[in-house]
Specification:
Layout: H1 10-30, H2 33-38, H3 42-102, H4 111-114, H5 146-246, H6 248-251, H7 256-259, H8 273-355, H9 362-365
Helix pairs in contact: 3-5
């Protein structure tokens, strides 16, 4: 048997009701004549602007946070790199010290074989009768040769301590040397700064002295120029006085009228016959020249009038030909327009009689704008 008392799934009902409410609100907003005709949805626009401003602000804050995070990451990476470099230098220094103190060629077990050295710890120090046929009765760490090993170990430790002390002393000497060099460098910088100050002071003093000398030279030159101008004006005044005293105006010299390039009214007695004949001859030449120029101007105006008349006739002929061509073109255009009108009229008749025969009813238009989608 099927169970009929199952609980109703309210999720689907709530989703359906939510969609219906959204559809009703959308229809109310879209089919509102006031909002559709008079303007925009200001509330929606303001909400969109507020959301946009909030989004821009959030993006700015995110960019600032990302920048700070990048700066922190860069600083951390640089610090890690410095620590890694320092760690590598320490490891390299420790490795060098270990090799110098713990891996000496003279401390190896086969130093007497490879380097022809004596005194290396080994099986030679033991009694030959203590070994058997296999020659493997003595191993490292057992009590055989303990005294020799201890003495060798003490010597190795002593060398190690001596090397460490020497290294520490060397580092102290290097530190003192670096501090001494740094002090010398600071002292040199101070001396250089003092020298630069002294040089700058000397340069300023030299510049002031040079400027003072230049100003003094300019003043002396100005005084000398004024003195020369004063002497020139005095000389010109004296020359003018001398000229007035010895000129022909005061002495009334009769030869002045002949030497003068212009007529002197107080000494002129009239023109001579030669001067009058020259004037008459020049006047006749000017009259003949003027008559010749007048004839030439008349001939030029006559030729120009003939040229203008010829150009006017040619222009009239061209205008008449253009009017004829325009008349023919308009006649062709009228024929073409009449043909297009007949074709358009036939097309309209075909559409009305053959195509547009099924007219839509009022029910056809009522099926639109019933949903917001």
């Amino acid at each position: 048997m099927f169970r009929l008392d199952l609980p109703v799934d309210e999720t689907a009902m709530k989703a359906l009701q939510r969609r219906r409410s959204a559809e009703a609100a959308r229809q109310k907003r879209i089919f509102n004549t006031r909002n559709r005709v008079m303007g925009l949805d200001l509330q929606t626009l303001e909400r969109q602007m507020a959301e946009r401003r909030e989004r821009v602000e959030i993006e700015k804050q995110r960019d600032v946070a990302h920048d700070a995070l990048r700066v922190c990451a860069d600083e951390m990476l640089m610090r890690q790199q410095r620590e890694e470099e320092e760690r590598r230098r320490d490891l390299a220094r420790d490795l060098v010290e270990y090799r110098a103190t713990q891996q000496r060629a003279g401390d190896s077990r086969d130093a007497d074989l490879n380097c022809n050295r004596q005194g290396a710890p080994g099986v030679n120090a033991l009694a030959p009768e203590s070994f058997g046929p296999a020659s493997m009765q003595v191993f490292q760490g057992e009590g055989v040769g303990e005294v020799e090993r201890r003495s060798v170990q003490m010597e190795v430790n002593e060398r190690t301590l001596r090397a460490q002390k020497e290294e520490r002393d060397r580092q102290k000497e290097e530190q003192k040397h670096r501090e001494l060099l740094r002090g010398r460098e600071v002292l040199q910088q101070d001396l250089r700064a003092v020298q630069l100050d002294v040089l700058e002071t000397e340069c300023r003093r030299a510049a002031s002295i040079a400027l003072k000398s230049y100003n003094q030279a300019q003043a002396e030159e100005k005084l000398e120029r004024e003195r020369q101008d004063r002497m020139r004006r005095e000389g010109e005044g004296l020359a003018e006085i001398q000229h007035m005293v010895t000129s022909d105006l005061l002495t009334e010299c009769p030869e002045a009228a002949e030497r003068a390039p212009r007529v002197l009214p107080d000494r002129w007695k009239g023109m001579s016959p030669s001067q009058l004949s020259a004037i008459y001859r020049q006047r006749e030449e000017q009259r003949a020249e003027r008559e010749r120029l007048t004839q030439l101007e008349k001939q030029r105006e006559k030729a120009w009038g003939l040229l203008q008349l010829q150009q006017a006739r040619q222009q009239v002929e061209e205008e008449s030909s253009v009017r004829l061509m325009e008349k023919e073109r308009r006649a062709q255009l009228d024929c073409y327009n009449q043909q297009l009108a007949r074709e358009q009229q036939a097309r309209q008749q075909y559409l009305r009689n053959e195509i547009y025969t099924n007219r839509p009813t009022a029910r056809y238009f009522t099926q639109f704008s019933t949903s917001s989608r």
